[in-house]
Design goal:
The structure holds 2 protein chains of 2 kinds. By secondary structure, chain A is of the alpha/beta class. Chain A folds into 2 domains: 2-84, Methionine synthase domain (Methyltransferase, Methionine Synthase (B12-binding Domains), Chain A, domain 1, Orthogonal Bundle); 91-209, Cobalamin-binding domain (Rossmann fold, 3-Layer(aba) Sandwich). Chain A has 10 helices and 5 strands. In chain A, helix 5 (104-115) links the parallel strand 1 (91-97) and strand 2 (119-127). The longest helix of chain A has 25 residues, at 60-84. Chain A is globular and about 50 Å long. Chain B is an alpha/beta fold. Chain B has a single domain (3-84, 124-379), classed as TIM Barrel. In chain B, strands 3-8-9-10-11-12-13 form a 7-stranded parallel β-sheet. Chain B has a 4-stranded antiparallel β-sheet with strand order 4-5-6-7. A two-stranded antiparallel ribbon of chain B has the order 1-2. Chain B is globular. Chain B starts with a helix and ends in a 5-residue tail after the last helix. The chains are: A alpha/beta, B alpha/beta.
Amino acid sequence: MSETLDQLFEGIVNGEKEIVEQKVNEALNSGMDPAVILNKGMVPAMAEVGRRFEEGECYVPEMLVAARAMQSGMALLKPHLQKEKLASKGKVAIGTVKGDLHDIGKNLVGMMLEGAGFEIQDLGTDVPPEKFVDAARSGANIIALSALLSTTMIKMKEVVDALAQADLPHKTIVIVGGAPVTESFAKSIGADGFAPDASRAVSTVQALLG
Amino acid sequence: MNSRERVMLALDHKEPDRIPIDLGATIVSSVAKTSYISLKKHLGIPLEEIKMLDNVQQLPYLDENLLERFGVDFRLVQLPAATAPGLSIFEEGDYYAFIDRWGSKLHMPKTAGYYYDWVDFPIKEFTLEALDHYNWPKPDPREYNLQLREQAEHLYHNTDYALVGSAVIGGGIFEQPARTVGMQNFLMSLVAEPKFADRLMEQITDIYIESCNNYLDEVGQYIQVFTYWDDVNTQTGWMINPDTYRKMVKPKQRRLVEAIKKKTNAKLFFHACGAAFDLIPDLIDLGFDILNPVQVSAKGMDTKRLKQTYGKDITFWGGGVDTQHVLPFGTSAEVADEAKRRIDDLAPGGGFVFAAIHNIQPQVPPENIAALFDTALEYGSYGK
């Protein structure tokens, strides 16, 4: 069993989509528990990619191909996971704020969170505050805001304020990031968390959820 | 000492009478339309009918009264870079839109939009066949370069300004592929489809060489600075593996530089945002003379360290004030304080041109912009 999972792990880390698909099928056909495939093979692989990125051992292209390989494996695994009624670690609604169309940072954060087992609702780019509120109302417990520009960064506060006034049925965490965004800016607008890159967004969310 | 003499001394790493000052000599050291308008109002300089130089970044042509007010030592001799001549803007839902000369579509939100950004791309398959069938853009027709020649010749003989130009008709050799196939797709192709990525960059280089040759045949003798831009760094370091940069990107940049150097003696300016410290040795090796914009807020971009390490080999053009935090959100006094500190770090021995870091963005208080350039003029004297 562990050999297939090892190869799956390596396939994701190296961004080899075909190998990942092959190994997921192989594992499923051998009757392995889908939750084990995910939690022992795939999630640790994305965590390793994140570690390498943080340590400067790999760069954005390697992270992107790894995430692509992870996603293609997930597409095969997902139908089986639902049968298992596996609880997701949380639902993240992610988007760039109003006026900002720059989405690669947002996409990377989404991929890394997905790779860590979170459910992702991608709201896209140029997202007005009310759409984030709607997403929180319909079940997202983590709202992730991205901005590349100093001019659009200030729109983050509008989203934080709109969420605070929305009288939501559950606790909602707001994380922010992007080129001009700093820890102190995040605090000043009342966001719950900040991360300097996609990999550390995962540890930030995990720490906030406790 | 006139502007051109001042600039040439500074670029030769000698101290002129004062630090040369740039605003608007390049499409990466200018000011966005809305801030330009509020700045002119603040200074009491009459507002002309705005003509756009760069639609993507919303940069207007800057008028002489403003440039003279700030003591700007440069003038631009260049056509719009990324946007084709005869550009037409249309509406698409909540966005203004246009198609650039590479066939890519850009959007700017109608409300709260500040930039046009690339949203749809002409190359959708990452194969050599797709490149065979792609309708590659053509450099500008000769009459455009003849017009620029007339402008350059006039400015060269009738003014003392240092002249700056470029004929790179898109992003850099590393940037333009992202604008033609999408950024994520291009970055992935570097590791997953390297033959495709390599040929895409080679063909872009061919187009830039042809465009630069055509431009420099007419303008090369009049300009003092030729600008090129290519962002390969993030705010914390390399965007791609430096080995990938040196193997796949740098040889093409070298081919372009060698072509440019055959046609002009102008100093070569490289615009690289972000944490570019570790890129500088490559730029020196390629034959670039100038680094811009010196993003001081990025990792490792401390101005003292930059000057100590590479100050003898490369001119720093920019770094005047942190455009991301201090210039838009600080007070005028904080802006002036930082400008003085950057001048103290970067000015000694020449090799420094004062400019903000990249284009001044919308919503920047006009009093901060005025404080920045007034400080440069007053504090930037070498005491000669």
